[in-house]
Amino acid sequence: MRTNLQKIAMLSLSALLLTGCAAQESGPLDYAQLSVGLDAQCERYESGAGAEQISVLGDIGEQPEVTFPVPLTGSGIETAVVIEGSGGEVLGGQQVLLHFMGFNAATGGSLQASDFTSENYVPQDLFAGAVPDFCKALTGVNVGSRVAVLLDAISAHGAVGIESLGIGAEDGVIFVFDIVDAYLPRANGSSEPAKAGLPTVITAPNGQPGIQIPSSEAPAEFASAVLIEGGGEPIEIGDSVVLHYTGWTWLGEQFDSSWERGAPSTFPITNDGLIEGFVMALEQVTIGSQVIAVIPPELGYGDNAQGSIPAGSTLIFVIDVLGK
Hints:
The protein is mostly beta strands. The protein has 5 helices and 17 strands. Strand 13 (240-249) and strand 14 (254-257) form a beta hairpin. The longest helix is centred in the last third of the chain and has 7 residues, at 276-282. The radius of gyration is 22 Å and the shape is elongated.
């Protein structure tokens, strides 16, 4: 069983590792408002007698003071909400921004911790079945909350231990998390009419798109359409944006998909790092939206083959804009 708990050894958690107020009429929607109506992708968190014994002092924005009886044992994954936020519920199947602090529940030893007083937040992807299953630990908790999570040995590391961190095969693990922000798991907003001549998009229950390509020749010009209109902020050139996307050639060959990698992608929307047609497709598109773009070769990879993409290919992208 693969465990990504070893991510904790590095401060970045890449090593571990509001339903809020009403929207202002003229302003963009926030996560709590944008996520209304979306289903949870993981089991909702549950508390337990073990997690309730974890004492966490300090306010949001302060480094927590954590104490607990040693050894502390629990069953499965237990979550205790210490400070209740109001930023909308974590749904799972998404990326969240965290501060974290970790402990060996059997010995009381401290593992790694981020600086809760800083804005150096740690991105963590939440997907069911991961070890540790932070998706189960955090789904249903409101953004803006502080929680204490107790994982038994099986839930924390598959009961094999992590020697490099001093975690034995029978040792549970404790985390304290501040959930600073969350990005949408999929596009969510108002559906827009299909645009003639563009591929038809069909989405799975989790939001992953598939397409039906017209039998006609590929368009000679760039074309795009918003399929779902989100109510968040518009993307500006230069913004760092969190996206789910899938790319196909006009012949129907899929060549890339963040959905199949199991995590959204984050990158700046600039012509320095992206093909021109991809940037054109996203400029001024709002968070929560889904857009389809058909990109002719001169705005894609031109006459150069790129991996499995033949030279001279017309490209199709379906992109969900999850946050920035």
